[in-house]
Amino acid sequence: MPSSHFSYTDDTLRELATTILDYAKSRGATATEAEVSEGFGQTVTVRRGEVETIEYNRDKGIGVTIYCGQKRGHASSSDFSPQAVRDTVDAALSIATFTAPDEAAGLADPDLIARDIQDLDLWHPWDLPVERAIELAKIAEDAGFAVDKRISNSEGATVSTQESQFIYANSLGFLGGYPNSRHGVWCSLIAGKGDEMQRDDWYETVRDPLELAPPETVGRRAGERAIQRLGARKIATTTAPVLFEAPIASGLLGHFVSAVSGGSLYRKSSFLLDSLGKQVFSPLVQIADVPDIPKGLASSPFDEEGVATHRREVVKDGVVQGYFLSSYSARKLGMKSTGNAGGNHNLILTDTGEDFAALLKKLDRGLLVTELMGQGVNSVTGDYSRGAAGYWVENGQLAYPVQEITIAGNLKDMFQGIVAAGADVSRRGSRQCGSILIDRMTIAGD
After folding, report:
1. Which residues pair with 190 in a beta bridge?
2. Residues 32 and 65: beta-carbon distance below 8 Å
3. Are 347 and 431 spatial neighbours (Cβ–Cβ below 8 Å)?
4. Nearest-5° angle of CA 407, CA 144, CA 56?
5. Is residue 343 left, alpha or beta, with left meaning phi > 0 and alpha meaning psi from -120 to 50?
């Protein structure tokens, strides 16, 4: 086990969670769940070679949910003292007393609770002195400036390291948790001068610092991307194929997850109501929810309710195979929890075999989108309209950068119109996919 800078031992957190359950039971709760957590980290930002910010964070908290029959109450505190713990339980109990009963409320189904908790290798501390963090941030920024003399300014380079641990317990007998870590390097640079300035960035984030890209690689990538955007122009309004670059293509998966999550479904606020077993994507689309990838950024052996997680196909040949359900939303829909209280795990879109160059060739003539702006997505209708920037593509080659445009369509049509999923997979978030090519969208420019 690596050395620890946590303030509390795992045993202490377990004892605290057990104390909460015991006290709640003595006060008349029919069921209880508790989470006890702590975290700490360090974030350093350098701008133009000078230290701009050094931030340290250290926090802790308890969350208590009490059930009195079908009545639910929740309270939280950042104080671990015995009196504060009792007060938090009493507050949750008081709320439950005055809350209307809800037939869907309650702990997870006992037969779904995780029993064998797998170690997914999620905790990799980074013993990073602040002086070394500053040095790494400077290396990233310097590498970006070295790309081209037209790199004129910087929005900064940041090096961050975070660790946390938690224990979740409920009155069904579940008691489990684990430590985890997340480390990252980010750099954002500005190219050009005056009205011709363009900015772009790059970042990497991992569980294990030994797998983090060298800071000079991150800075160089940010610099190259900023330079490529110089000379950006508007284009005439047209309809054409659109290729979403991998880092933003994951957002399309996010819209799907939101649309088939329990809350959206039982509230009937989704454009994909009753989509189970239906063709939502083009037949080439395969999506899996994979919670057990070692060091995965969204890996977990159980969800926020202690329900065991399992690998499952979410979309097969374009057909929806499953939703994303917590215990509460599952009951509202007359279904079973899928182990997704808290959201998706590592959501993986299987690539169709093309690398990025092959995707551009397949696009032939159209738009490569590398940045999206605005929140123009209607979750009820699926209407999609976002500000965008990127590159116009001619004959499978980048022709020139474009800006101040809007791309529009409907997510139902966009999902059905996916013609390729690239092998250039971005793994820096919970939704892992390569670039996604859609057959046609409206591009609004001049």
Report:
1. 153, 199
2. yes
3. yes
4. 90
5. left
Q: Give the H or E element holding residue 225.
A: helix 215-228
Tokens of 86: 């009792």
Pick left, alpha or beta for residue 19 (phi over 0 → left; psi -120 to 50 → alpha; otherwise beta). Answer: alpha
Judged by DSSP in three states, 169 sits in: strand
From CA 292, how far away is CA 85, in angstroms rounded?
33
Token readout for 151 is: 């790199």
Q: Which single residue is written with the structure tokens 């500005």?
A: 190
Spatial distance between the Cα atoms of 22 and 164, rounded to a whole number of angstroms: 25
Q: Angle formed by the axes of helices 82-97 and 10-26, to 10°?
A: 40
Run means of pLDDT, 10 residues per run, the chain, 446 residues: 76 97 97 98 97 97 96 97 97 96 96 94 97 98 96 97 98 97 98 90 97 97 96 94 96 97 96 97 98 97 97 98 97 97 96 96 96 92 96 96 96 97 94 97 90
Closest CA to 388 of 186, 225, 243, 183: 243
Consecutive H or E run containing 430: none
